[in-house]
């Protein structure tokens, strides 16, 4: 397996399919609890726009995408209504005495590992590649995780993410987490 950046439309298509297969509405309650879930679907059009702003990270087994971790720059907020809301909200959260907007960060747009590859270090490989490639450009990665997605919370904490804020919106309760590289 190899962690790398997306280079083809075929890889983006595989991300779309993997996202759809693991969407909260597409899996059973037992699977949500034991395996986690993703909250958003990404269309090919949206992925292309995001990728044009900044490369995304995948893990491949041969030609198959078995995991992805999407970079959503703050500038991508205009591509997706939920992302616009999320970034507008988190920009005002204080961290170490100043609002997040005063830091150089990006949003982890979504991370997902193929069911057959869970427990095989793919999640860690994705985030290690993010740090390797982007730690000299950004202060940290920020993302939001549903408080009901305990598997995702544990996995992010293991990598080094810390919860800095928790809030509830019309859809769910969310932990705002960052992985500080400074």
Protein model, in words:
By secondary structure, the protein is of the alpha+beta class. It has a single domain (2-180), classed as Gcn5-related N-acetyltransferase (GNAT) (Aminopeptidase, 3-Layer(aba) Sandwich). It contains six helices and nine strands. The protein has helices spanning 9-21, 29-35, 44-53, 81-90, 122-134, 150-159, and strands spanning 2-5, 57-61, 64-72, 94-95, 98-99, 105-113, 140-146, 162-168, 173-180. The protein has a seven-stranded mixed β-sheet with strand order 1-2-3-6-7-9-8, sandwiched between helices. A two-stranded antiparallel ribbon has the order 4-5.
Q: Which helices and strands appear, and what pairs or packs with what?
A:
Layout lengths: L1 E4 L3 H13 L7 H7 L8 H10 L3 E5 L2 E9 L8 H10 L3 E2 L2 E2 L5 E9 L8 H13 L5 E7 L3 H10 L2 E7 L4 E8 L2
Parallel strand pairs: 6-7
Antiparallel strand pairs: 1-2, 2-3, 3-6, 4-5, 7-9, 8-9
